[in-house]
Amino acid sequence: MKDDQDKRAGTAKPDVKDSRQQRLKLALRENLQRRKSQARGRSDEAAAPSENTDVSLDDAGGVKPGQ
Prior knowledge:
Elements: H1 2-47
């Protein structure tokens, strides 16, 4: 009887390990998709110029400092 319990316990562990592996695989895949999406979003922002790209931060209306 004790041997039967050991056999059942031995078969349960791989199932738990397999389910953990499946969860980790799924989480990794979702993380990869999210990171790819973020990277695409960043490249879109870099490719599209913003409205303020022509304005220089130290350009004060053409007036030079000290004049």
